[in-house]
Specification:
about 700 residues, ABC-type oligopeptide transporter activity, 6-stranded mixed beta sheet, ABC transporter transmembrane region fold, about 10% strand, alpha/beta
Length: about 700
């Protein structure tokens, strides 16, 4: 009986699979075994392929449902976070909003803000050396992630052919992962470090821009909002221009690299996956625009909440004294629904977009799995190729999903950067630098037909055609009813504001022509409610001038502050607390007077600097001020008769106008506003000269004052 040539060829091929260590079989046994192998070997191979495909199906199914569950959890967490925010009653206070929750100008027109994204990226330019190294690490990390799926497929094919090939492929895959992990470590470290350096520099620049602004700027912007820009918004920008940009680049390169490998593996399968890319890309662009606007509004609401909290906490003693806790809470909570609506819109947008993308990607993966399985069944590709392709598909899917989240965070940073750049670009109306610097201060101060309205209160004119002259070396007292404009005059002299019309001169030189920083160093001011910083007494006294301890101590002695300072355990190193809360009112005022006297100014501006002192301390401080007056110009806002009587001139300001001007005796004789103020003080036994609704009194005022 002749052998079938085809069967003989198959038997010969099968014989190569027999172990060389096995004992030779009989010819009949060999023929029987070969016949068995001939009929069963193809079936066994198909069974192995089917088992591998079932295993891959299980992995893909788990990944699919994991992505769906992850999307749902992300949506739920977004809703829960804004529900919690509503419970915490975060709200907005300051910004003008229309019915559409858009910030508007005073005339009701929406404020249009925009920012160049490239400018946001340019913030990191000084750190380009570090960023370049981080970018190289990013390339290496992404390359490892992109090539790993290819070797996964090779492992599957190697497992069916040769153990040596399997070992070699697994070792290469392990090295790829180790290299990727090391590169990822460098990438994360370098990008984070660059971000920290960038945000530190940005905060310094932003703080410098803020403190260089004119006082009117601070009248119109709340402290809490500005501090929120410094802290919260800069942190958001840091994450955007370093971490988020690196993640964006990573995911984009991961998508591109994966698609390239997918084309190499099988172009038709890649075409199936690419069918959904335009849909996802278009949705991502529209989503980014929408989320950018919402996140910007949300950041504004957070800034307002921070401002409100800062204001109430810093004035907690006033809140407590008036039992106004509920009122403060109501103020903090009254606009929470508007803030919640913004958060709700953001949560719905994020959840809907993420969920929709997840469903689209899952459908694409399922389609790829079906079509790839068909190609394996038809022997167009191997099981290893399908494995690699499916892993690349998962790479692309997860990169798209995370890309949308990172893109949303980046758009949040774009929104936050708008206000940051507004502050950085804002030019102060009154520059602190530039102008004339006089060799000496010759001549006095002159107000010539000055009119002024605070920018924050444009409908209320504070000074109306005020003119007066203060000779050099004179002590001039400003008196008048509260709200008449006395403190405004002091503010204008310090050039915190410029008059709307008229002029203020030092000698013959308009203050607008002088260098503001230089001019302010020639004067010193003490307000009625002095502000101290949360540092030691020594640091507070030497705040305006670098001085040794002896100079600080001498200034304290002149202000009658030395004795009470020495009574403290830490003496001049005693911390005064925030805004000087650990000191009494009189102690704070004496420290402020010492700070003013240490500068040795040419001009002294005093807002009744002795009003919080007891009689003995007032006398001692007044003596120190009298000594400091030599060859200096002193302007004091006075509320006490004892202060007014020592003045060379008394200027009465009432309802924004110059009511009277002259010496104390001259004004008493005129029977005008000043006389009414004096009578009120004498008859009521009060110490403040503030009222203007008095009637004439037949008593001789000079006699009363002499008593």
């Amino acid at each position: 009986m002749e052998e079938d040539p085809q069967r003989t060829r198959l038997i010969g091929e099968s014989n190569s699979d027999v172990s060389p260590d096995r004992e030779p079989e009989s010819q009949d046994e060999i023929r029987v075994n070969y016949r068995y192998r001939y009929y069963t070997l193809p079936s066994l191979r198909y069974i192995n392929v089917i088992r591998m495909m079932l295993f891959i199906d299980a992995i893909i199914a788990i990944a699919f449902w994991a992505s769906v569950i992850f999307s749902l959890l992300e949506f739920i967490m977004a809703l829960l976070s804004f529900w919690a925010m509503r419970k915490l009653k975060i709200q907005r206070i300051l910004h003008r909003l229309n019915d559409a929750l858009e910030e508007v100008e005073e005339d009701g027109k929406p404020i249009k803000r925009d920012v160049n994204i490239f400018r946001l990226v340019r913030l990191i330019k000084p750190e380009m050396g570090m960023i370049s190294l981080a970018a190289l690490s990013l390339l290496a990390s992404t390359a490892s992630q992109t090539t790993a799926p290819l070797f996964f497929g090779m492992v599957v094919d190697a497992a069916q052919t040769s153990m040596a090939r399997l070992n070699r492929t697994v070792l290469i895959l392990l090295l790829i992962y180790i290299a990727g992990a090391i590169a990822g470590l460098f990438r994360a470290t370098l990008f984070t470090l660059a971000g920290q350096r960038m945000v530190a520099r940005l905060r310094k620049e932003l703080f410098n821009s803020i403190i260089q602004q004119e006082i009117a700027f601070f009248d119109q912007n709340r402290t809490g909002e500005l501090t929120n820009r410094l802290a919260s918004d800069t942190q958001v920008i840091q994450n955007a221009v370093t971490v988020n940009i690196s993640m964006l680049a990573r995911y984009i390169m991961q998508i591109i690299g994966s698609l390239v490998f997918m084309f190499v593996l099988n172009a038709s399968l890649t075409g199936v996956l690419l069918a959904v890319v335009p849909i996802i890309s278009l949705g991502a662009v529209q989503y980014g625009k929408f989320v950018r606007r919402i996140r910007q509004k949300f950041q504004d609401r957070l800034a307002d909440a921070s401002s409100t909290a800062e204001e109430n906490i810093s004035n907690i003693r006033t809140v407590k004294s008036f039992v106004a806790e509920n009122k403060a809470l109501t103020l903090y909570s009254e606009s929470v629904d508007k803030s919640y609506l913004e958060g709700k819109r953001l949560a719905i947008a994020e959840g809907s977009f993420t969920g929709t993308i997840g469903i689209i990607v899952a459908a694409a993966i399922s389609l790829v799995l079906w079509y790839g399985g068909k190609l394996v069944f038809e022997k167009d590709i191997t099981a290893g190729v399908l494995t690699s392709f499916l892993l690349y598909t998962l790479n692309v899917a997860f990169a798209f999903g995370l890309l949308s989240s990172v893109y949303g965070d980046f758009m949040q940073a774009v929104g936050a950067s708008i206000r940051i750049f507004e502050l950085l670009d804002k030019t102060p109306a009154i520059s602190n630098q530039g102008g004339m610097k006089l060799d000496n201060l010759q001549g006095g101060l002159e107000f010539d037909r000055v009119q002024f309205t605070y920018p924050s209160r444009p409908d209320n004119q504070v000074l109306k055609n005020v003119s007066f002259h203060v000779e050099r070396g004179q002590m001039v007292a400003l008196v008048g009813p509260s709200g008449g404009g006395k403190s405004t005059i002091v503010n204008l002299i310090e050039r915190f504001y410029d008059p709307d019309s008229g002029s203020i001169k030092l000698g013959s030189t308009n203050l607008k022509l002088l260098d503001p920083s230089w001019f302010r160093k020639q004067m010193s001011a003490v307000s009625q409610e002095p502000t101290l910083f949360a540092c030691s007494i020594r640091d507070n006294i030497s705040y305006g001038k670098e001085a040794d301890f002896n100079e600080v101590q001498e200034a304290a002695k002149q202000a009658n502050a030395h004795d009470f300072i020495m009574s403290f355990e830490e003496k001049y190193d005693t911390l005064v607390g925030e805004r000087g809360v650990r000191l009494s009112g009189g102690q704070k005022q004496r420290v402020a007077i010492a700070r003013a006297l240490l500068i040795n100014p040419d001009i002294l501006l005093l807002d009744e600097a002795t009003s919080a002192l007891d009689a003995e301390s007032e006398h001692l401080v007044q003596e120190a001020i009298d000594r400091a007056m030599n060859n200096r110009t002193v302007l004091v806002i006075a509320h006490r008769l004892s202060t007014v009587r020592n003045a060379n001139k008394v200027i009465v300001i009432s309802k924004g106008q110059l009511a009277e001007e002259g010496t104390h005796d001259e004004l008493i004789a005129r029977n005008g506003v000043y006389k009414k103020l004096v009578l009120r003080q004498l008859t009521a036994g009060e110490t403040n000269i503030k009222e203007d609704n008095l009637t004439d009194d037949p008593v001789d005022n000079r006699v009363l004052m002499n008593k």
